[in-house]
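Lab meeting minutes (informal)
Scribe: AK
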Amino acid sequence: MSNVSHARSDIAGHPDAPEMRARYDRVMGGRDVALVDAPVFLVGLYCAVSPWVLHFTANQPALATHNLVMGIAIAVLALGFTMMPERMYGLSWAMCAMGAWVIVSTWVVGSSPDTGIILNNIIVGGLTVLLGLVCAGAAAKSRST
């Protein structure tokens, strides 16, 4: 039986350490905004459930369905950012457009919405645009380096 009780040494002396560091840098290069993935997901989930939170499913059924679909789409983008960041951060601008649409759709899809619904969609859409801009900025920065 081998003795494994000795203290482990630093990996810096390992012959493959530079190659492992370079690979780690390549893999994590697009992950500058890893902390933004969770807020994007949460904004998407809130957008999806907001018709039931604010109780406008009965008087605004078209807007309720719209918010559900848009929220799921935003949450799916967030999952894509998490799973394949190097491919998905190019869709950050699409997320900005989706946020702008969530704001405008209050009047386009809804029929005479009240102040709560208007404020809800403006805040959700604004956060989506803001987080999309953060993702787009990070993607542009990672491409330039």
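Next up, CB showed the second protein from the same session:
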Amino acid sequence: MIRARIMATAMLFHDNDLLMMKRSPTRTLNPGMWAAVGGHLDPGEISSPRNACLREVCEETGLQEEEIIDLKLQYILIRLNQQEIRQQFIYTAQTTRRDVIQTEEGVLHWIPREQVLDREIPFIFHRLLEHYFEHGPTDHIWVGTAGFDQYSAPEVHWTALVDPGMN
């Protein structure tokens, strides 16, 4: 039986640094790896991943909504992991402050942009960061689906999410 896991995540920047979490080695998903802040949508948040993202950011960093500038949905990632379809809404934003709280989920660090990709990062998120650093913020949302290239190597396929009815 295939299950679904829906998540919301924020790539938070302050100046040229990205807030990243070195995940606790006891976490279920990607233990010990580096990731952005975020988590699962609660049942009442299914129609509003933005609200889930803000809640997760507050829980994991202490940053309040008014300290987050230009929160924008930039990516939707979809992948199959064994018998689970994972859908992740990725938002980007700037923060007004750098001081954050620490939680049991992992340790937060501000990483200079040029050092971010040197971390041990889950495959699909690593590809997202490469894409974002190459293309920057855009007016549209990108959908990334995990798959394989012509040589059977893991790859993320990127598509601009647009409404064809809006001309």
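CB comment: The longest helix spans residues 49-61.
No objections, moving on.
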